[in-house]
Amino acid sequence: MGLGELTFELILGFFSLLLMTRLLGKTQITQLTAFDFISALILGELLGNAIYDDDTGVVKILFAITVWGILIFAIQLMGQKSITIRNLFEGKPSLVIQKGVIDRQELKKNRMNINELQNLLRIKDVFSVREVDYAILEPNGSLTVLRKPEFDTPTLKDLNLPLNSKSLPMLLVSDGIVLKRDLQKIGKNESWLKTELKQQGYVDIDKIFYAEWREEDGLYVIEKDLLSQG
Questions:
Q1: What is the average pLDDT across 88-117?
Q2: CATH number of the domain at 94-151, out of 2.30.30.90, 3.30.420.150, 3.30.240.20, 3.90.110.10?
Q3: pTM of the prediction?
Q4: Which uninterrupted H or E stretch holds 70?
Q5: Residue 173 near residue 196 (C-beta atoms within 8 A)
Q6: Which residue has the higher pLDDT, 173 or 72?
Q7: Can you tell me the distance from the alpha carbon of 183 to that of 202, in angstroms, rounded to the nearest whole number?
């Protein structure tokens, strides 16, 4: 296989896997269950073997990725309609701590020891089991924790403080480039942006690394020079 052909197959394989991942959904990345892990592993293995096997051409690469992608999609579709199939392929949550008590049987079922449980709790900023009311081991291996009321972080409602609505920040300048589409989303134009920047002492947009706008806070700016000094 020549370098040109190898390059073509690598590029084709990359975009094929990228397209397949986008079609199958973001859960393939953000919520990696055992089924998702195997799916990603097999897709990568299929592509790797196809690329470095001289007897395998472009058609076979696309065919292998397509068939495996259809299989994953079909299983996901069946999982949406059947809880049994969903639990079979994705697993189901396990209640490992209930009313402050560790369920040793659930830990054994999930092949987990107390040290692993403590590690997952620390990831959630919980350093003592006594703070936990309920803890659920999710199918992707993460831990969802509900603290006991006395250890939970108070909310504004609990403290009877006024509730102020918040808006999502909008990135307007990225590495010296004005994002005109995002400006339009907040009903502004480039002239307005330049005026806002001048009011804060910024004249040259090219020297701005990051600028975001939020309705309740206004414009927040980070200069390129400031980053290099740091």
A1: 87
A2: 3.30.240.20
A3: 0.57
A4: helix 58-81
A5: no
A6: 173
A7: 18
